[in-house]
Amino acid sequence: MCSAFEPLNTDDAGTVAKNTNQIEQYYFKTASHGSGSAATVDIITPGEEYFGGSGASAFPFTYTRGIAENIEMSFGTTYYAAPRGNYSPISNKVLALKWRFAEDEDGKWAVAIKPSITLPGSPQQQVAGLDLALPNYGLNLIGSRYWDSVEVHINAMYTKPLYNTNYAIGAAPQKTGPIFCSFQLHAVWRVMEKLRLALDMGITTNPPSTEQYLTNYALLAAIFSMNEGLDIGLSYMRSAANMGLVLGNTGMNASRTEIGFTWRF
User: Fold this and answer.
1) CA–CA separation, 112 vs 149, rounded Å?
2) Residues 6+ positions from 18 with CB-CB distance below 8 Å
3) Cα–Cα distance, 216 to 203 (Å, whole number)
4) Residue 11 lies in a domain
5) How far is the first Cα of the chain from the last one, in angstroms, to the nearest whole number?
6) Is the separation of the CB atoms in 242 and 251 below 8 Å?
7) Residue 21 near residue 63, CB atoms below 8 Å
8) Which of 160, 163, 162 is nearest to 182 (CA)?
9) Which residue range forms the structural domain that includes residue 225?
10) Measuring CA to CA, which residue among 118, 155, 162 is closest to residue 2?
């Protein structure tokens, strides 16, 4: 699935300007904690839904093109440096369109909708936890509120994760539930002219488990604006079955560290 507003999980209602382009190239590393070599199939890292049984390192890439003043199209994919096996390291190929259909004339708020489709991976990728072996689709409703130095963005997302039932997902035979639903919120503070700090929090229902199950996450990020066209971002996220485990760093949890750049041209 495609991450937006890198290095955050939650998207914003803004779109890339008409006839301009944006490239987001990042690197992330995941790890599981609290139970030895616990499989991350139980505790996923939202934003990069990796279901494998060990830590991963990968390079998510997204290209976005502004096709109207309030519409953009994007294509994203992820190259996995680890784990590796008898399958392609390129997975999570996502096509998306974002339409900002309502906004304030003074730019104080905006609302957008973002449908997406994820192209199918191979059965071998599904077994490794990198991808699912059937096409998937989703819809994200995005609301944004802007002040002079603070922004708040809210996402409500529905995703239909399809998979080949003849194969396991990740390191265990658990199957994904019929849907993913998530609610995400992040706030961005412009601390200095070229520095923004962000707090991103959310909850996801029904990750790959035989039971209804929740994953909570909290993410801290810093975004450095080198110039009008280039941002450098870094973030650290922790996810677990509830927010107490996330904030207390106890029990079984997973983490993701991410760094990279966004280039607009």
Assistant:
1) 21
2) 66, 67, 68, 69
3) 4
4) no
5) 24
6) no
7) yes
8) 160
9) 21-264
10) 118
CA distance 51 to 93: 16
The 3-class secondary structure across 192-251, one letter per residue, is ECCEEEEEEEEEEECCCCCCCCEEEEEEEEEEEEEECCEEEEEEEEEEECCHHHHHHCCC
13 occurs within a structural domain = no
Judge whether 18 and 69 are in contact, CB under 8 Å: yes
The DSSP bridge partners found for residue 184 are 155, 202
* pTM summary value: 0.91
Instruction: Note whether 202 and 46 are within 8 A (CB).
Output: yes
Q: Look up the CATH number of the domain holding residue 112.
A: 2.40.160.40
CB-CB contact of 3 with 48 (8 Å): yes
Tell how strand 21-33 and strand 253-264 pair up. Answer: antiparallel
**Tally of domains within the chain:** 1
Torsion sign (Cα): 244, 247, 252, 254: positive
Each residue's pLDDT tens digit, 195-204: 999 999 999 8
Residue 102 lies in a domain: yes
Residue 197 is assigned to a structural domain of this protein: yes
21-67 residue pLDDT tens: 999 999 999 988 876 544 444 556 777 778 877 789 999 999 999 99
Enter the tokens of residue 41: 């199939």
Per the model's pLDDT, the better-predicted residue between 174 and 247 turns out to be 247
| pLDDT of the residue at 171 | 63
